[in-house]
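Entry, Tuesday afternoon. Goal for today is a structural model of the target with magnesium ion bound, before we commit to ordering more compound. Inputs were pasted exactly as handed over by J.K., no edits. I checked the ligand SMILES twice against the vendor sheet because last time a stereocentre got dropped in transcription.
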Amino acid sequence: MKKIFAVVGRPNVGKSTLFNRLTESRDAIVDETSGVTRDRKYGDVSWGTKEFSIIDTGGFIKDGSDVFESRIVEQIELALEECDAIIFILDAVVGNSRS
Ligand SMILES: Nc1nc2c(ncn2[C@@H]2O[C@H](COP(=O)(O)OP(=O)(O)OP(=O)(O)O)[C@@H](O)[C@H]2O)c(=O)[nH]1
Ligand SMILES: [Mg+2]
């Protein structure tokens, strides 16, 4: 059984870019606008001799007020339940601000 990795992090940090790179696809929408990914997207990866699956998720917003933000968090939680490990992505330049 292939291991499943969930790509998780704040909005607009490059999760979908990494998903596309690893799956060698353009299946995930990449955009400079924050909050583009809203559901979960599954992909298969062949990385050298390793084969695994990854899940792209939407950007995590703590205590999000709008309905989309809370639905995104629900989708992230489903991915977290299903995965074997998490790939946690950060933007080293933006740091901890909410811009
Ligand atoms: N400078 C820089 N920009 C990047 C990098 N990875 C992605 N980007 C850019 O950052 C923006 C957001 O990338 P996405 O992959 O859509 O980010 P995301 O985390 O999936 O965003 P959401 O789905 O909105 O949470 C795009 O304009 C990308 O081209 C990187 O490593 N360096
Ligand atoms: Mg995305």
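The chain has one domain: 3-89.
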